[in-house]
Amino acid sequence: MIYVGTDIGKEKFDVCSLDNDGDLISTEQYTNDSKGFENFIEYLKTMTGLTGNDTKIGLESTGVYHIPFCQYLSDHGYRVKVLNGIETKGLKDSRVRKGKSDRRDAEAIARYLIIASNVDMPFPIELENLREYAGIYDRVRKKIRTTQNNLMRDIDLVFPGLTTSVNIFYEKILDLLERNCTPEGILKMGVSELKELMPKNKAERIINLAKESSSPRGRKEAITLEVRSLIRTLRFLESEKEAALKALTAEFQKNETPLKSIPGIGDVTGAIIVSRIGDIRRFSTPEKLVAFSRLDPVIYQSGKSRKESRISKRGDHLLKYAIYQSALAATRTDSPIREFYERKSKEGLSGKKLITACARKQCHIIWAVWTENREYS
Fold first, then answer.
1. Which of 96-100, 122-126, 175-179 has maximum average pLDDT?
2. pLDDT reported for residue 192
3. Distance in angstroms between the alpha carbons of the first and the last residue of the chain
4. Which residues fall within 8 angstroms of residue 147, CB to CB, at 6 or more apart?
5. Is the domain of 99 the same as that of 181?
6. Do the beta carbons of residue 224 and residue 158 sit within 8 Å?
7. What is the DSSP letter of 21?
8. Is 296 among the domain residues?
9. Which domain holds residue 193?
10. How far is CA 276 from the centre of its chain?
């Protein structure tokens, strides 16, 4: 067996090959383009032709730079293990002589392959479009959250107390803030003008807040300018989010999957779950799916002492979001998740811990239904 570690960069990738004993065969460097991929394949053929051994290839997930390389290798019949950088970090840190280089990182990946017992299932090519739509939706969602946080920051500066008293992201409130975001501006408008934008009780509440507010002097013109800019950006991003959701759900409808039959899983959550998992055979047990979904607790164990603390932050954050939301929806239906929710609630579990426990249960259901390729019943 030959173990080939590759460290992928934007313009090039370094290669380190080891034999079964972990001895160095060679180190190479290629351009990260089609010509470099061709040369790498020829290099692999030369090695396997001389030794008659199989080849195991590994690389770290580095943004998007590794994706064309993985696809090229897959098209030529090679299977690749895509690693999380956390997996190889221990080997890199264990070096006696400290230092970092791309070739040394490629060697660490090759040495990890000797330890690792399995090779990743290749991501189904027919789901690549769905996976990208899910990524687009997630990126737009994050941009919206960042824009909302910046808007709240500005309003807290110029109109203290407003964000804790009303939902500033309510469309009528955004209309108001786009016109006037300072207490002085609101007071000049008066209740009658505010009533044209919102119900009387909400208008009166905002007027009272404006009377009691002690906004700081200075910076108001600059903040007003940014508030209007952020509101325009927020509206644009919301429209982009709707477009991404429409494309995501339309792509999901093309796929036949038994997951659609599971209570709590709709078009959006189902699309994300399928797009992030790809092939359920990647997970030999439901517990491994739970861990990948960032829903397993961090365990500290020493001797007879065993303690569970917070939920792990290692895994796929978007998959966790989708499974968590599907479990939350399932608690409102006539389903085993609802029964599980009520039982755990009586046992004293509550809040996020309770929904997280339901999400772990949902992982087991997803794994069973998908593995057996049957409708949920």
1. 175-179
2. 81
3. 45
4. 230, 233, 234, 237
5. no
6. yes
7. T
8. yes
9. 130-251
10. 9
Which of 95, 122, 149 delimits the end of a domain? Answer: 122
Residues 158 and 234 both lie in one domain: yes
CA atoms within 13 A on the CB side of 141: 11
pLDDT tens-digit series, residues 39-97: 999 998 887 654 445 788 988 877 788 889 988 988 888 878 888 766 666 656 655 45
CB neighbourhood size of 375 (10 A): 11
The answer to whether 80 touches 4, Cβ cutoff 8 Å, is: no
Report pTM. Answer: 0.78
Which of 232, 251, 270 finishes a domain?
A: 251
**Any idea what the CATH number is for the domain that residue 7 is in?**
3.30.420.40
**Does residue 271 belong to any structural domain of this protein?**
yes
Identity of the residue numbered 29? Q
pLDDT in tens, 331-377: 999 899 999 999 999 999 999 999 999 999 999 999 999 999 999 97
Residue 377 belongs to a domain: no
Q: Cβ-count burial of 108 within 10 angstroms (0-12 exposed, 13-18 middle, 19+ buried)?
A: buried
To the nearest 10°, report the CA torsion of 147, 182, 222, 225.
Answer: 60
C-alpha separations of 351 from 29, 146, 344, 354 in Å = 52, 25, 11, 5
Q: For the chain, how many structural domains are there in total?
A: 3
